Amino acid sequence: MAPQESIPVAANVLGTIGTVCWCVQLAPQIWRNYRTKSTEGLPAAMMLIWSMSGVPFGIYAIAQQFNIPLIIQPQCFCVLCGVSWAQCLIYGRKWRTWTASLFLMALLVIFAGVEIGLIYAIRPAYSRGIQWPVLLVGIVAFVTLLSGYIPIPFELLKRRGRVVGIDFVFLTIDFFGAFFSLLALVAQNEFDVLFGTMYALCCTIELSMVASHLIWLLRTKDIRQRAKEAGETFDESEEAVLWQSRGVDLESKFRQMFTTRDVPQEDDADSEVDSTDTVVAPEHFIPKTVPNAMV
């Protein structure tokens, strides 16, 4: 696809709305992490991969001469995802705040250097009609951004569809950011299929996460009602804890497949337990505080 020659007003307006959404989308998530001092349920890998995706995303947007809002968008997205990732290090892995902050700053400097260097490297060839370098960068951005969602199904399976640790205000703003960015591409003189597909998939994935949690709410309606009558929250109810613990922890199963260890001899009574089942530890499916997941 050739770079845009001119940008219609509608594309600029829609792109601006999408950019504003994607510039503030992670603010509720960052605030929630800070307020609860917990990132349980928020995959650190997702935040890091999303931050990394801002580099090829920004290169592609600049090379294609998108409207200014869509060029600014990946830079803000990269920084905010990086901040949320640093919070995962601080609250989840107990890093010191200064250590995580300096590490983040160094990483962002590297990202900026790589982006600037690649922009100047591919622009001359692109101006001569050689399009494959820009297309390759676009594909890398596409794959990287969407691969950030890979940990989400594992988290949902582990918690039987319950969304934990991910702020629903963030999901809502993120959805509208992708939606209006998609409309901005539609309003351009030439539609960018690669990024249009990416925005559409982002919208679909986020809607599926909301749908998953709504289904969880329906499935646990009676349990939550009984817990309320007993003066307990869902996470305090023994029945709820037992029900929630039946989730499938595929991550632990995969780790077991690639980990060899000596298994001590067990008593006959213990041997009756099926060793193939992976039990989800309560602290892995029950967050310390989940204000958005409670009804």
TrEMBL record:
Major localization listed first in the record, in broad terms: membrane
UniProt superkingdom: Eukaryota
Membrane topology according to the record: Multi-pass membrane protein
Compartment(s) of residence: Membrane
GO cellular component: membrane
Transmembrane spans: 6-24, 44-62, 102-122, 134-152, 164-187, 193-218
InterPro entries to which the protein is assigned, alphabetical: LAAT-1 (IPR051415), PQ-loop_rpt (IPR006603)
Keywords, comma-separated and alphabetical: Membrane, Transmembrane, Transmembrane helix
PANTHER family in the record: PQ-LOOP REPEAT-CONTAINING PROTEIN, SEVEN TRANSMEMBRANE PROTEIN 1-RELATED
Protein name, entry field: PQ loop repeat protein-like protein
Organism: Ophiobolus disseminans
